Amino acid sequence: MLLPRVIPCLLLHDGGLVKTVKFKAAKYVGDPINTIKIFNDKRVDELILLDIAASRQRREPDYALIEDIASECFMPLCYGGGVRTVAHAKRLVGMGVEKIAVNSAAIGRSELVRELAAQLGSQSVVACIDVKKSWSGRYRVFDSAKERLTEKDPFAHADELVGMGAGEVLINNVDRDGTQLGYDHDLIRRFTARLDIPLIACGGAWTTEHLRTVVKDAGASAAAAGSMFVFQGPHRAVLISYPAYPDLVRLLGA
Q1: Does domain 5-252 bear CATH number 3.20.20.70?
Q2: What is the pLDDT of residues 188-208, one digit of tens each?
């Protein structure tokens, strides 16, 4: 596996894949099984799959769909969405999901991370934190399930979740999501300066240079992206892609 990792981050909604802009205006981009088969052929490092409807609808994960996806996925798979208990997580792991991502459920009950880490091991628990600036320009935790900005400080929230046993942290900047403007380096640097576990940066990637700089300049352990791997050109035509392995090696110096 290439280190640092370059990870497609796919969004599930009602059984299909979508891509959002600033967590809104979801556009259908394809069937998850067909997309994963393409990523298998392209030697993708790892895959993050987030069901953006499950938590909003207060339902459990779509186990039948995830089982189908996991059976076709030949790379490490991280899943998030609707996971609120250890039982939910264990069922997913039994289907072949390697990592469980928790986000909204941990905003209200951070102890969930401790429970998951105790049962699955820290290496299987990813703390996802959606970050958005408030009207005053301060970074705050965004609760995507309730679609509202909270008063939580994202850096303190990350410290708490890491203390609970999270083995990895994914930071997604809502204001950059789907914009193709590149990652928020200031945000990522502030996290990498205080965390001693791997950090996945997400939100805004569109070019391989964006991938390079968030790793080399901002210190991220991995670069995740959505639009970059599902769209092509200024009109955002759907095309599933991923950089060739030798190109990534040259780009990231692995």
Answers
A1: yes
A2: 999 999 999 999 999 999 999
